Amino acid sequence: MTHFDEAYVLSAFQSLLGIDSTTGQFRAIQDWIVQETERLGYTPQVTHKGGVIVDLGGEGDPLVITAHLDDIGLMVRKINADGTLNVCNVGGLYPFYCMAENVRVYTGDGRVYTGTVCRTPNSVHVTEEELRSELGDFRKNVCVVLDMPVHTAADTRALGVETGDMIALEPRFAMSGGYIKSRFVDDKACVAVLLNVMKTLREQGLTPRRKVYAYFACYEEIGHGTTYLPADTRDILSLDIAPTGPDQNSEEHKVSIFCKDSRFPYHYEMTLELRRAAADAHLDYVMDIFTPHYGTDGDASVTAGYDIRHAAIGPGTANSHGYERTHIDGLRNTYALTMAYIRP
Questions:
Q1: What are the residue ranges spanned by the domains of the chain?
Q2: Which one from 36, 101, 220, 251 is the annotated catalytic residue?
Q3: Kind of pairing, strands 166-169 and 73-79?
């Protein structure tokens, strides 16, 4: 009997959350994955642009299971005259989902400053009524205020801050009643699940029924995480969140099997294989479709020209790209389906 190690998954998830990894800022989290997979008994390989691939054993018909390490965030667009930062999004982050959030600004020379995402003007009590009703816009009325005594652009530049510097949002992890609340459930929770799969295989001496690679990608949020794959890859399975909503079947306690996203349908036969595996294992699962603004790294592999099948599964997750929420049962079912698919 394979074992979902809840304590390990939560510990790994929180360790991953403790490493800021706005897309492009991959080095620290890549190093952590390398060290953790080595500790689990594997031999990881890193890609040139950033990412970690690990051979999990097995023979023939190679399957890549991927989960991504990168987070949505912000980047310094320019320094305003008053020393605040005009910012642009990295990945699908919108102003209404990060207003008043605490952030960390990473300078090119390695310094880190804290700050806050603010409206401009930033105080309701001294803001005209017509300005209160305006939507937040990174170009016009949203900025990052540094927790430093700066009053001019020169003051801020003296700190080493410049256009192109990365800005990471505070995750704010909390758990209550089995519900996990945090930024970056997408996709660090699924990374923790994949690590648990690897841990189970090693500790129980299990060999997958086919050759399996784990692929921890670093550019999913901007669309090219797995545009490189091992040459012998036949299939790719993405572990990613299943957004909940009024028209969705996905629920936080369940694992979703993805039928289609905003780009195109997932491979029909591979999707049916996952559906049969879930049913045979008596898992709490649903089938779902995610449009109009969703895609996974499997899509990137297909559009890169690989002759592969692609599919995706993941835990139901509310508030996608905001302060997200899932449930430990959703992670448990995602783990169980992954194991059922590679060890029927």
A1: 6-71+184-342, 73-169
A2: 220
A3: antiparallel
